[in-house]
Amino acid sequence: MKRIACAVGLVVLVFGVAILARTQTQSVEQELMKLEDEWGNALIKHDPAPLDKVLADDFMGTTANGGVYPKAQLLEFVKSGKEDIISMVGDELIVRVYGDAAVVTFRDTIKMRVEGKETTYLERYTDTWIRRDARWQCVASHGSRIAQK
User: Fold this and answer.
1) Residue 23 and residue 41: Cα distance in Å, rounded?
2) Which residues, in sequence order, are CB contacts of 17 under 8 Å at separation 6+?
3) H-only helix segments in the chain
4) In which element (H, E) is residue 90 found?
5) pLDDT over 60 at 22, yes or no
6) In what order do the strands lie in the sheet with 55-62?
7) 2-146 has which fold?
8) Which end of the chain is more exposed for a tag (fewer CB within 10 A), N or C?
9) 31: closest CA among 131, 117, 108?
10) What are the structural domain ranges in the chain?
11) Cα–Cα distance between 136 and 55 in angstroms, integer?
12) What is the model's pLDDT at position 10?
């Protein structure tokens, strides 16, 4: 009888730990999705302050044409308002969590105004996040333009 009780207790413990781990992963996924949304909103509003919080000081971005830019350059660019982003609609969002690291991939439909002319294009992004000092920070981002048909 004791063996059965121990076995049942062990099974309950294992499932409890698995459920707790899944709940924590879902919470991290939701937090990272929220941070990605805040990033997009900051670009639309030309507000570098939210980006200053979520980008690591050693952040490095890669553009669709292979250019690279550090955090300071991105913050200055957002502040300048050189690009007038009207909307960014993300989909196909996948968050993969690896302990204190995570990779977020998604597709964005971006509508913007350049020199008075509206244009829409698609990009696919891969963002790499690290949890430092109990908060998530993006350390790298890569965007690739999706060819229009």
Assistant:
1) 27
2) none
3) 2-45, 48-54, 71-80
4) strand 84-98
5) no
6) 68-70, 55-62, 135-146, 117-132, 101-114, 84-98
7) Nuclear Transport Factor 2; Chain: A, (3.10.450)
8) C
9) 131
10) 2-146
11) 9
12) 47
Amino acid at 85: I
Over residues 17-23, the mean pLDDT reads: 43
What is d(CA 109, CA 121) in angstroms, rounded to the nearest whole number?
A: 6
Both tokens assigned to 92: 């196909």
Q: How many other CB atoms are found less than 10 A from the CB of residue 57?
A: 11
Residue that has been written with the tokens 């790298």 in this structure = 140
- 49: tokens are 């302050």
Which of 60, 74, 77 minimizes the C-alpha distance to 126?
A: 60
